[in-house]
Amino acid sequence: MTASRTAANDATLDAEEVRRFSRIAAEWWDPLGKFRPLHQIGPPRLTFIRNAATEHFRKDSKSLRPLAGLTALDIGCGGGLVSEPLCRMGANVTGIDPSERNIAIAKGHAEPQGLVIDYRAQRVEELASAGESFDIVACLEVVEHVPDVGQFIAECARVVRPGGLVVFSTLNRTFKSWALAIVGAEYVLGWLPRGTHQWDRFVTPDEMTAYATAARLSAPRFEGITYNPFQDQWSLAPDTGVNYLVSMTKTEQT
Questions:
Q1: Spatial separation of the C-alpha atoms in residues 78 and 92, rounded to whole Å
Q2: What pLDDT does 197 receive?
Q3: CA geometry: angle at 235 spanning 229 and 237, to 5°?
Q4: Cβ proximity of 96 and 127 under 8 Å
Q5: Which end of the chain, N or C, is surrounded by fewer C-beta atoms within 10 Å?
């Protein structure tokens, strides 16, 4: 996407958010840099996607390539932290992001490894308008950065094929998330640049369910991600009070 097309905000894109992440794009693959939290929560996020997808599509979860034969779209792919593992799991992956700099970083990291990923500087609306659809759609840590979450989720749902699977991950709007994800992570511990998150854009599970239902997505299954400070490790857990993931299915056409 060209700079002119990201110049103004609309319902599903905040131009300042795009600029914010573009400015630090060089750090995507530094596990100790500004994206360190995303590297740390990578294993539980990918475990959730793999488990949801293998159960839904009746694949072997123990296979080295459990997603073989499936198409996957990574919305807001950034530098490719999710696209690359999905590709290694056998999926035919497309990664999109409104930041051309993010896409350049993603391509530059994947190509020397021989990973074939279709990276595009595009928005999900463009894929939907072109009639593209995918078996699996992943949209991780994105919805809390868009102005109109309901409309954005509706656009994401348009690119899931009927009978397909969509996975979102985001932050719950609770006092606990404000204390830990904003005050703690941004101001006390410095894990994230200050201003990374806006608490009023966090989405509760009930709101997520309502948006999903309106977009013809069904059967939401929620799971939390929690941090163990003694082990410096993140893992899947029932607690959805701060970070959570949800998988949903696209209603079959009748």
A1: 18
A2: 56
A3: 110
A4: yes
A5: C
**What is the CATH code of the structural domain delimited by 3-172+199-250?**
3.40.50.150
CA distances from 40 to 81, 156, 188, 197 (A): 11, 25, 18, 18
In 3D, which of 208, 116, 214 has the Cα closest to residue 158? 214
DSSP assigned state of 67: T
* pLDDT of 6: 40
Q: 149, 203 in Cβ contact below 8 A?
A: yes
85 Cβ contact list (under 8 Å, min separation 6): 42, 46
| 208-245 residue pLDDT tens | 999 999 999 999 999 999 888 777 788 999 999 889 99
Residue whose tokens read 């998988």: 247
- Give the helix/strand (H/E) hosting 223: strand 217-228
pTM score, whole prediction: 0.89
Structure token digits, residue 47: 């475990």
**CA neighbor of 68 nearest in space, from 87, 90, 50, 84:** 90
Query: How many angstroms separate the CA atoms of 77 and 119, rounded?
Result: 9
Residue with the two structure tokens 């941090």: 227
